[in-house]
Each structure stands twice: as structure tokens, then as C-alpha cells.
Amino acid sequence: MQFPAGALVDRLGERRLLVGSLFAAAGSLVVLGASPSLVAFVLGCGLFGLATGMFGPARGMTLSRTFPDNEGAAFGLTLATGSVGSALLPFLAGLLVGPLGWRTTVALAVPGFVVVGAATWVSPPTPRPTRATENRARRTSARTRTRPASR
How far apart are CA 7 and CA 100, in angstroms? Predict the structure, then answer.
């Protein structure tokens, strides 16, 4: 999904693709949770995979643009947070599936995707770098690399 998502982010912009991905993920969870058949269930799972697969390139571009001086830290923190979620969500889902059932447990995730999608849409855009800021960043980077280490 990275290649088509990269092309889409170039065409649509980061915000539109992020929000579209979040809302599509919410919609796919509705399909998944309401699936009356195995075919609908598989379709919901596939749609969820497509929707969340579109998120990566837009997220990466937004992080790079928002934190140009701390890009590595921003990516590291984002990926670490995702890893914590990947570790905790199965445990939490396991606790909820017993008393609530799998359909309700899946449905509980929908509002989170919708709220984050809406918040992403109304958040201030990250300014696109101009030629002047890009040139200034290159000069600063070059000076930092060639500066002798302090003792």
C-alpha cells in the first residue's frame, strides 16, 4: 500500500489522506462488526487493511514537515507508541470480548477513529517548507556536519 499511498499523498495532500484513511478505517470496522456472513467479514478485514495501509506515507510526510530538526525522534516516538498499542490492544480486546462479544468490541474502536479523524481535519496545517527554509536547513546541516567536535 505504500506506493499507491505515496502517489495519493502527492495528489491529495497529507491531511486529506490521513483523514480519509481514518474515516475509511472506521467505516471498515462498521462493515466488519455488522458482517452477516464470512464474505462480509473478509471484506471488512480487507477494507481495514487498505485503509490503515494508506496512513503510513502521509504520517511520515507530516512528521518530517512538522519536526524537521527532530525527525528521528518524532518517528521513533510515533513507532514506539504504535508498538505499545500493538502490545496492549490484544490484551484489552481479550478482556472485552468475553463480556461484550467480538462485534461490540470491534464497534468500540469506531468512535476513536472518527474523533481522531475529525481532530486531524481541524488541526492547523503544517506549513510547507519554502525554498528559503530548505536552503537554510541544508546550510545548517552542512555546518553541523563539518564543525569539529568540542572537547
Answer: 40
Tell me 150's DSSP state: P
CA distance 115 to 62: 19
Task: List all residues 6 or more positions away from 34 whose beta carbon is below 8 Å from its beta carbon.
Answer: 40, 103
Decide if 80 contacts 29 (C-beta within 8 A). Answer: no
Its pTM stands at: 0.75
Q: What is the number of residues in the chain?
A: 151
Share of the chain above pLDDT 90, in %: 50
Please list the alpha-helical segments (H only) found in the chain.
2-12, 14-33, 38-53, 55-66, 71-100, 102-122, 131-146
